[in-house]
Amino acid sequence: MAASEPTTSSSTSTAADAPVDADGTPPGLDVAQHDHGHRPPSLFAGRIGSVEILAAVLVLLIFLRDPLAGLLSAPSLATWTTVFVSVMVQAVPFLVFGVLLSAVIAVFVPRSFWARALPKHPALAVPVASAAGVILPGCECGAVPIAGSLIRRGVTPAAALAFLLAAPAINPIVLVATAVAFPNNPEMVLARAVASLVVAMIMGWLWLRLGRANWIRLPRRPDLDGLRRGEAFWSAVRHDVAHAGGFLVIGAMAAATINVVVPEQWLQTLADQPVLSVLALAGLAVLLSICSEADAFVAASLSQFSLTARLAFLVVGPMVDLKLISMQAGIFGRRFAARFAPATFTVAVAVAVITGMVLL
Question: pLDDT-based confidence at 240, cuts 50/70/90?
Fold first, then answer.
């Protein structure tokens, strides 16, 4: 034992006298090795990011360029691509507009404004919020983030949801487009405005009666309170574009797939049956997911169907379609979308039929 003591002491002294870096590690020894038992870092220790994924996808596309070229030339895929791109082109500008307005509401509009602008009683706030959709040119893609921002700013959910449904269908751009698409049927403009406004108010009042607070789960937002207004504005814009845009892409892909899968002959068969024709066009509006600024021209082209059936197409489309359901699930939560979308569809079809019987 005594013989080993000098060796231990010498070893200890040598280690103590050895030069060290400023962080206490011997020169030439990597910090990661020092912290992890002198093991060299693994090749895949770093987290794979978006740049690495993009590079891998590009390399894969290069190797598969010949099979993909043949696949892209298929007529069905060409149709799918056309529908997908058209939905995105129609929706993205209004989505960006809605996101920008949503950020303005979140950053620059004080909470006290909404207390003054809307009636304090929720039942009265619903029709006021529905009528406010007349002054906002935009489609359903932009209305979803705006409604989410209104709820965050203290607006009662019933009023925000009524605005969400009314704004895409009764704003000036949509009504003018409807008038242009139906030059020989000006009553379609009035019928669309009245039916859409009634549906929005009914759904707002139904939410007051039956809705529950835990059905709406708004996604977490960046903390805007500690930022300057300009920084908070762009932070909110980036967050909402990334969040709502992803669900818009999913909805557009679903709509394009349905356009390719559903045979056109089915529509011809259903057009001759009044009840089924209404349900068929209402369901078609959900599947096609056309922006509200363009859906009137599609409805006008379906001349084999009655005006009432086409009115159902125009009322349902801006309130319930695949991309809108997808975005609602992303902004408000899946529990909300699973309840709100079917209820809205039912009410919209019923109101469109009644309105068509009276005005058309």
Answer: low
Residues 6+ apart with CB under 8 A from 224: 106, 107, 232, 235, 236
What mean pLDDT do residues 110-119 have? Answer: 71
CA–CA distance from 243 to each of 102, 161, 213, 289, 352 (Å)?
13, 19, 22, 19, 32
Query: Phi/psi class of residue 24: alpha, beta or left (left: φ > 0; alpha: ψ in -120 to 50)?
Result: left
Instruction: Decide if 238 contacts 116 (C-beta within 8 A).
Output: no
Tokens in use for 47?
């987290």
Query: What residues contact 3, with CB distance under 8 A and at least 6 apart?
Result: none
pLDDT tens digit string along 269-325?
A: 777 788 888 998 899 888 877 777 778 877 887 777 899 999 999 999 889 988 788
Burial of 55 (0-12, 13-18, 19+ CB in 10 A): exposed
Q: Would you mind telling me the total number of residues written for the chain in this entry? A: 360
CB 255 within 8 A of CB 83: yes
| pLDDT class of 6 with cuts at 50, 70, 90 | very low
First to last CA, the chain: 109
Rounded distance between C-alpha atoms, residue 256 and residue 85, angstroms: 9
Question: CA–CA separation, 119 vs 107, rounded Å?
Answer: 22
Residue 227, φ and ψ in degrees, nearest 5: -105, 155
